[in-house]
Amino acid sequence: MGKLLFLSRKEVESLLKLNEVINVVEEGFLFLHRGEALAYPVVREFLGKYEGIFGIKSGFVKNRDYLGFKAGGYWENNPQLGIPAHQSLIVLYEPKTGVPQAVMDGNFITIIRTGAVGAIASKYLARKNSKIATIMGCGTQGRIQLTALRTYFNLSDVRCYDANREYSTAYAKEMSASDSSVRSFSQPENAVRGTDILVTTTPSMRPIILDQWVSKGTHINAIGADTKGKQEIDPKLYQRSKVVVDDLKQCSELGETQHNLDFVRSHGIHAQLGEIVSREKSGRENDDEITLFDATGLAFQDLVTAGLALTLAKEKKMGTWVEL
Ligand SMILES: NC(=O)c1ccc[n+]([C@@H]2O[C@H](COP(=O)([O-])OP(=O)(O)OC[C@H]3O[C@@H](n4cnc5c(N)ncnc54)[C@H](O)[C@@H]3O)[C@@H](O)[C@H]2O)c1
Fold first, then answer.
1. Where do the domains of the chain lie, and which CATH numbers do they carry?
2. Which of 96, 142, 228, 322 has the maximal Cβ count within 10 Å?
3. Does ligand 1 have an atom closer than 6 angstroms to the CB of 192?
4. Which residue among the candidates 17, 57, 70, 316 is catalytic per the annotation?
């Protein structure tokens, strides 16, 4: 009989530091590019009841021996019940034998690995001297995305907008720092015009960012669209941007790219992020181009982050061992 390690949300949260997660996720993009991080077909479906979406992302990071899956999803009405919209568990297996190794909370891992990818994409694609950032959607991702951006950029002006004004006001108060104030806007257009880095973190099903609001040189992290039907970006804006995706196949099914398939078939995209991290393709090339990163969240991001949590938990003797 084997034993597996159970890690609670609190334990996972205390083990993982954003800068370390950024490092393992960036390295994971190299593994993906070299074919060492495999992803199996994604399940992601609307329940058709309770405003819920359920999914499974699984894969195998061969050179690190991380095999497993994350199962869970997004329940839009949860915040009104005081529960996070995302709910998930991650399971890791011993790849040689299939014996389960660990079960852990997946909510914090989803949050932090997505913050990490936002920071990595911005490092390669945003203008180095970016000072203004706009966060559209003041929920969980809106928070981690700003925290992650601040690891690379000195942001003197942060703007935020949310469909619910109370959320954006509370966000501005909570996320303001002495050298980086956050202002809540009542009109999305005013929050977007003139910004350097724009991050969209809503579950919207229609464009919330119009093409004419976005000026040359802006970098956009499109985080919210990660499911069939979700959309935040005006297709006109997508089509005049230099587009980078986390994974083209997945983005064509779940991301902003799903709404631009004809365009992508005829014009292509600039790169997958792994090609830029590996220096095979360029990141930003001048101050005028609009760059857009389409993020849908990849299995390896969960696996390398869960693997890091497991290694640290064993080192620090944290968690609860459970008999199988
Ligand atoms: N790409 C990825 O890897 C990845 C990872 C995690 C979450 N997500 C997606 O990001 C989105 C946000 O996730 P979250 O955990 O922050 O959710 P959340 O519920 O915590 O926050 C979403 C916020 O968006 C606001 N909002 C909803 N519709 C809006 C609109 N039309 N305009 C402006 N604001 C609006 C809500 O009021 C809320 O404050 C979801 O679609 C989620 O599935 C993607």
1. 3-110+300-323 (3.30.1780.10), 127-297 (3.40.50.720)
2. 142
3. no
4. 70
HSE at residue 33, side-chain half, CA atoms within 13 A, is: 19
H helix and E strand count, the chain: 11, 18
- pLDDT under 70: residue ranges of the chain: 1
Q: 100-105 and 3-7 as β-strands: parallel, antiparallel, unpaired? A: parallel
At 313, is the secondary structure helix, strand, or coil? helix
Q: Cα-Cα-Cα-Cα dihedral of 72, 199, 25, 251, to 10°?
A: 60
What CA–CA distance (Å, rounded) separates 5 from 163?
Answer: 40
Is 62 known to be catalytic? no
* 248 burial type by CB count under 10 A (0-12 exposed, 13-18 middle, 19+ buried): middle
* Mutation probe of ligand 1 site: the residue of 25, 140, 202, 257 with most atoms within 8 A of C-beta: 202
What gap in Å lies between CA 210 and CA 177, rounded to an integer?
A: 29
Using a 6 Å cutoff on CB, does residue 73 contact ligand 1?
A: no
Check if 201 has its Cβ closer than 6 Å to any atom of ligand 1: yes
Between strands 132-136 and 197-200, the pairing is parallel
Other beta carbons within 10 angstroms of residue 69's beta carbon come to 21
CA-closest residue to ligand 1 atom 32: 163
| Distance of alpha carbon 222 from alpha carbon 118, whole angstroms | 9
Q: CA 90 → CA 146, 168, 187, 224, 243, distances in Å?
A: 25, 31, 38, 21, 30
**pLDDT tens per residue across span 131-163:** 999 999 999 999 999 999 999 999 999 999 999
Amino acid, res. 208: I
